[in-house]
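tl;dr need the bound structure. longer version: we got a ligand (zinc ion) that a collaborator sent over and nobodys looked at where it sits. i said id run it. heres the input, straight from their email, havent touched it
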Amino acid sequence: MGSQVKDHVDFAYELDLVVKPDSTVPLLGREFNYYVGSGIPLFSIGGGYLRYVLQQVLVGFHARRGYFIAETPIIASSELFKLSGHMDFYRGNMFVFDIEGKEFVIKPMNCPYHLLLFLNHVARYRGKVRLPFKVFEVGRVHRYEPSGSVYGLLRVRGFTQDDAHIIALESDALDTVFNVFKEMVQLLEGVFGLEVGSENIYIRLSVSDKSLIGREFMGTLEEWEAAERALEEASRAIEGKYGVSRVVGVGEAAFYGPKIDVMMVVKGGATAKEWQMGTIQFDFNLPRRFKVYDVVKELYGDTRVFIIHRALLGSIERFLGGYLELSKGRLPVHLAPLQIAITLIKTGDEGVDKEIESRALELKNKLLENGFRVGIKETTKTSIGGDIRHIETTIKPPILVFIGEKEVKESTLTLSIYTKKGRTRKQLKVKNVTEAVEEIEKIVGEEEAKIKEIAGVNPRIPADLTHTL
Ligand code: ZN
């Protein structure tokens, strides 16, 4: 069993990010699968913290970059998706149902709602709305996938996109694409600590087969050429600036437009897995169907615009799947469900133990006050080895604090901090609870400063997670 390779699903369960579907834990006398269908990952307690933190970061990140923040409903009248054309060409992937004789759908994508928001906004404020118009949503979508193809967090029936739509003048297309990629880099590096120029990330440019435009690829040759020129130039600039390798797929574009996809590669031994993450896609179908060209012509003069779909992470679920494998379940301190585990090593001596306990409690309360997610683990000198091994292979807190007899005698506390470089822990002795809190503030603060810089928020969700230890 020792050589068994763990995948994202194992890491997700270990960290308590999602609930294990084949759980043998008796649940109302039934197996988990009985109540929750396949392809619908249920995020667990740990996953809840991670998602709320991520959501705050994503909202702040986009709002300060000129995106309007939206929140659109999960269900929609099928009329909206008839207008977008999805009821014709995508119905097989959609969940369609009836309410009082009227047809409704669960939205498989957010675009139609975002275009309604655009049209409403420009109708209301007329030509005052500046282009590019950008609207963002942490949007939950559902699509039908055959039960045979659903897998972990990677292929699911319900997922969440960090989704935005940009309506940009043709003259702004190149800048827009390049800016979106810049945003992607800021997010991947600043929040997830990924290296965009590394071998783990490459971009794939998918363009049309020119001979099939007007038949298999909808829109005009002019539109395709302008969009592909912007994508080509932007992707070359990206390659040059960030050192990301680039693959071009001729004839691989979507029928509605060309695109750039960002791929994550995880190498494990002889095998390499890859997943699509972020995407930047042009669309020549929706502007026609939503009469965007007519509206823009009326309000802004006879200028052509592009509609661009873009997601920086793509599906948050799928992104997490790849990220967990890449990071081997070691999340950075601002994303870790449990940030700090206080390990209290009991001695059997009542006086010493009392002192140990009171210090651990004092530290826990101070850390909670400061907004951290913390838990206390009670152990003894003889069982500490096993307990630490368990913690390190399950919830993996980036920071451990030890309080035992030695610490009480020396009047110190020992911090053990996980560092990404070398994938190991370094020990640090501090004098007291105040110093420990200061040191932890410094460690977390360093990570948070990067997020503050790019997203303008400092997301902290205080939680006592002692029960997870
Ligand atoms: Zn879209």
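gonna send this back to them w/ a short note. The domain at 340-468 is CATH 3.40.50.800 (Rossmann fold).
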